[in-house]
């Protein structure tokens, strides 16, 4: 969607605050021994208190409130009884719908003490997100975001999961345009456009597949992945971050 009024911006900001609050609280609770279902229950309580609903459940009947992906699970991990272990990476991918507006963000969190490679992987995703946001300016081609992300990830010795992209958002989770994480000749970014920028990267080759559960997307080579994401509004200058 493109924002047409201050009221729409305020509504998107409200949804973004729910997302940001949820990610902060989940990150605080990530530790060895906690289950992903326990984390999902926390997210559900925060959503209920805010009057928000789970975007993935609302739009796609996802079997959880939020997506919680561990290690080689790049995206769309289903919350369940598994307990997190020291050294793992968990992706807290949160989408909230509030009063008809959606916002989406993700943060990768280390469980306990992780190896240097995993720390570098998380840092690379975060840095790639910053570079992607710097390229997200009205008048630029959407492919400039992907080019910036890809260059930063490659420079740091990792791979983009090229099949997985950012997207338009606003009235539904997934809207046009697609926002790839590689250089791409896409449409022009326009003032007021609402999108997600979300590098999804891997320590290995970056190829992915959908698991037998029909939801979880994993790296083909089993390498760990990291995911960083914000929902933004395009402007003629720096984008407005809705989920910070």
How do the helices and strands line up, and which of them pair or pack?
Elements: H1 6-29, H2 36-50, E1 53-54, H3 55-60, E2 67-70, E3 73-75, E4 89-98, E5 101-110, H4 116-135, H5 143-155, E6 159-160, E7 166-168, E8 175-179, E9 194-197, E10 200-202, E11 208-210, E12 217-219, E13 225-227, E14 230-233, E15 240-241
Antiparallel strand pairs: 1-4, 2-4, 3-12, 4-5, 6-10, 7-8, 9-14, 10-13, 11-12, 14-15
Helix pairs in contact: 1-2, 4-5
Task: Please give a quick description of this structure.
The protein is of the alpha+beta class. It has helices spanning 6-29, 36-50, 55-60, 116-135, 143-155, and strands spanning 53-54, 67-70, 73-75, 89-98, 101-110, 159-160, 166-168, 175-179, 194-197, 200-202, 208-210, 217-219, 225-227, 230-233, 240-241.
Question: Features of this protein?
Answer:
single chain; about 240 residues; alpha+beta; four-stranded antiparallel beta sheet
Account of the protein in words:
The chain is of the alpha+beta class and 244 residues long. 32% of the residues lie in helices and 25% in strands. The chain has five helices and 15 strands. The strands form five sheets. Strands 1, 2, 4 and 5 form a four-stranded antiparallel beta sheet that branches. Helix 1 packs antiparallel against helix 2 and helix 4 packs antiparallel against helix 5. The longest helix is centred in the first third of the chain and has 24 residues. The two termini are 20 Å apart. The mean pLDDT is 97.
Integer average pLDDT: 97
E-strand count: 15
Distance between the termini: 20 Å
Number of helices, counting only DSSP H or I runs of 4 residues or more:
5
Q: Which series of helices and strands comes N to C?
A: HHEHEEEEHHEEEEEEEEEE
Give Rg in angstroms. Answer: 17 Å
Stretches where pLDDT is under 50 for at least 5 consecutive residues are none
- 3D shape: globular
Strand content: 25-35%
**What class do helices, strands and sheet pairing give?**
alpha+beta
**What's the story with the biggest beta sheet?**
4 strands, antiparallel
Summarize the amount of helix as a percent range. 25-40%
């Amino acid at each position: 969607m493109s924002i047409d009024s201050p009221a729409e911006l305020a509504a998107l900001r409200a949804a973004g605050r729910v997302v940001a609050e949820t990610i902060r609280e989940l990150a605080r609770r990530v530790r060895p021994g906690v289950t992903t279902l326990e984390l999902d229950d926390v997210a559900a309580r925060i959503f209920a208190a805010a009057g928000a609903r789970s975007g993935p459940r609302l739009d796609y009947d996802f079997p959880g409130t939020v997506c919680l992906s561990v290690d080689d699970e790049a995206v769309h991990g289903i919350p369940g009884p598994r307990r997190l272990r020291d050294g793992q990476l968990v992706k807290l991918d949160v989408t909230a719908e509030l009063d008809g507006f959606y916002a989406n963000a993700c943060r990768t969190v280390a469980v306990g003490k992780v190896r240097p490679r995993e720390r570098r992987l998380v840092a690379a995703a975060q840095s790639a997100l910053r570079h992607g946001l710097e390229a997200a300016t009205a008048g630029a081609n959407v492919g400039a975001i992907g080019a910036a992300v890809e260059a930063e990830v490659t420079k740091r010795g990792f791979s983009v999961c090229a099949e997985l992209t950012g997207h338009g958002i606003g009235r539904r989770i997934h809207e046009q345009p697609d926002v790839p994480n590689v250089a791409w000749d896409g449409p022009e970014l326009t003032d007021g456009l609402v999108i997600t920028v979300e590098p999804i990267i891997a320590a290995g080759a970056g190829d992915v597949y959908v698991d037998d559960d029909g939801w979880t997307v994993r790296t083909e080579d089993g390498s760990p992945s990291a995911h960083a994401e914000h929902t933004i509004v395009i402007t003629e200058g720096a984008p407005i971050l809705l989920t910070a």
